[in-house]
Amino acid sequence: MPLKRTCKEATALMVAREDRSLAWRDHLALRLHLLVCKACPRFERQMLGMRQQLKQWRNYTMPD
Ligand SMILES: [Zn+2]
Fold it and tell me: In what residue span(s) does the Putative zinc-finger domain sit (predicted)?
């Protein structure tokens, strides 16, 4: 099954997704993995939360 990913591969894809957009095949494989896996959706939520905080931090401007 070429679209099957291990948890390790899935998390690597989620990390890579932060920097670049995934190929449709990787994107699809990741979505499929997230549907069947219990651990990785939790990791994804944490990661999305982290990204949100990072965005807020980036937008923060130091008062003069
Ligand atoms: Zn997984």
Answer: 7-40
Q: Which residue segment(s) compose the domain that 55 sits in?
A: 7-59
- Say how many Å lie between the CA of residue 50 and the centre of ligand 1: 19
How many domains are there within the chain? 1
Within a domain: residue 2? no
For 37-53, write each residue's pLDDT tens digit.
999 999 999 999 988 88
Residue 1 covered by a domain: no
Nearest to 22 by CA among 40, 36, 3, 50: 3
Give just the sign of the alpha carbon dihedral 7, 10, 12, 15: negative
- Cα(29) to centroid(ligand 1), Å: 11
Whether 1 has a pLDDT exceeding 70, the answer reads: no
